[in-house]
From TrEMBL:
Residues 16-55 form the HTH marR-type domain. GO terms for molecular function: DNA-binding transcription factor activity; kinase activity. Keywords: Kinase, Transferase. The keyword Kinase applies. Pfam families: MarR (PF01047), ROK (PF00480). InterPro entries: ATPase_NBD, HTH_MarR-typ, ROK, WH-like_DNA-bd_sf, WH_DNA-bd_sf. The keyword Kinase applies. This is NBD/HSP70 family sugar kinase. Belongs to the ROK (NagC/XylR) family.
Length: 386
């Protein structure tokens, strides 16, 4: 059991690493002031991190233009350790080797048959693909993070229920640890993406932050005070299963009229086929393009989708009061006029005091958001909280 002195040293170590992660390179004196630590303590902490190869020191950019002795900055060595991030989606797995800033390098993917391939087989395939990435990292690999749709158990070892995948009680932690020999951690996919945006995205430090991901379903993740919000036993924010249509379509969850039955990609694809007469790889963008070209039916359908999404978002705004809502997934490639429609519709539904306080923007992390999210979860558990 760690002694009080060891606990204090670990705390100082965590504080320095998190500060370098969140604020970039810092002079030792600046770090000490920011963290209210003595210069002597900071010297000891930095010396330890230098010995471990986790940080480096170098001249400040532009220091040579100043008179006197150039200052040096402590910087995080992002390539000192790695994690593997795994995003499990509907019929698709993406995984990548990510550095200490959760930046993915080698990203790979494979498809699987939702109807015919059991989840245990998918986990085995994940282990095989991850093993190839683990070889690249060698002894610098800290562990593996998995972002899967649906709630996870309190220990973050297994996916409890994924409605859209038809999975229940799928073990990830133990099989992956046996295969790779490193720790594994599992989290809800959209909560992981929300954490990644808060940690590594271009959000301006907005707090609270609500991330909404529209794909096969509509998922949400909330970060408050820099920490992912985990409510109850499983900690999920099931925005997609708010009822927004009375006597609406049946949902995979067993209810009717859920938001994801009238706003997710399967429904958007149906609209595109019906109104545009063709299949679409990006139905939201194609509907918006048709509406922009004067197609009244496409415009009306887009307004209906946006209205229903805004109804769900307004509930989240009124209950949770986020400063920023990020829309990802299908909205990553949506044209800006779609966001304008969402902002207007949300403004009409949110509580008056709150409607002026919340921003709605496009998610910032791009197509690898799920890989970055799962890496962020692993890094928090296995590196920045150690």
């Amino acid at each position: 059991m760690p002694t009080p002195v060891q606990d204090v040293r670990r705390l100082h170590r965590r504080l320095v690493l998190r500060t370098l992660r969140d604020h970039g390179p810092q002079p030792r004196a600046g770090l000490a002031r920011r963290l209210a630590l003595s210069p002597t303590t900071m010297t000891k902490v930095v010396a330890q991190l230098l010995d471990e190869g986790l940080v480096g020191e170098g001249a400040t950019d532009g220091a040579g233009t100043r008179v006197g002795r150039p200052s040096t900055e402590v910087r995080l060595r992002a390539d000192a350790r790695y994690v593997i991030g795994v995003q499990v989606g509907a019929g698709l797995v993406r995984l990548g080797l990510c550095d200490l800033r959760a930046r993915p390098g080698d990203v790979r993917s494979f498809g699987f048959d939702l109807a015919g391939e059991p989840p245990e087989r998918v986990v085995t395939r994940i282990a095989g693909a991850a093993a190839a990435l683990a070889e690249q990292a060698g002894d610098r690999l800290l562990g593996i993070g998995v972002a899967a749709p649906g709630p996870v158990d309190p220990g973050q070892r297994r996916n409890v229920l994924s409605v859209n995948l038809g999975w229940r009680d799928v073990e990830f932690g133990d099989p992956l640890e046996r295969a790779l020999g490193v720790p594994a951690v599992v989290d809800h996919n959209v909560r992981a993406m929300a954490l990644a945006e808060a940690r590594y995205g271009d959000t301006g430090g907005a707090d609270p932050l609500l991330y909404v991901y529209v794909r096969t379903g509509v998922g949400a993740g909330l970060v408050i005070g820099g920490q992912p919000f985990r409510s109850g036993a499983h900690g999920v924010t099931e925005l997609g299963h708010l009822r927004v249509v009375e006597r609406g379509r049946p949902c995979a969850c067993g209810a009717t009229g859920c938001l994801e039955t009238v706003a997710a990609e399967p429904y958007l694809g149906e609209l595109a086929r019906s109104l545009l007469g063709r299949d679409s790889a990006d139905p939201l963008a194609d509907l918006a393009s048709a509406a922009g070209e004067g197609d009244e039916r496409a415009g009306a359908a887009l307004d209906e989708v946006v209205d229903r999404l805004a109804t769900g978002l307004a509930s989240a705004v009124n209950l949770l009061n986020p400063a920023l809502i990020l829309l990802g997934g299908a909205f990553r490639t949506a044209p800006e006029p779609v966001f304008d429609r969402v902002r207007q519709a949300l403004r009409a539904r949110a509580f008056p005091v709150l409607r002026d306080a919340v921003q709605v923007r496009r998610a910032t992390l791009g197509p690898d958001a799920g890989v970055v999210g799962s890496a962020a979860v692993a890094l928090d558990r296995l590196f920045y909280d150690v």
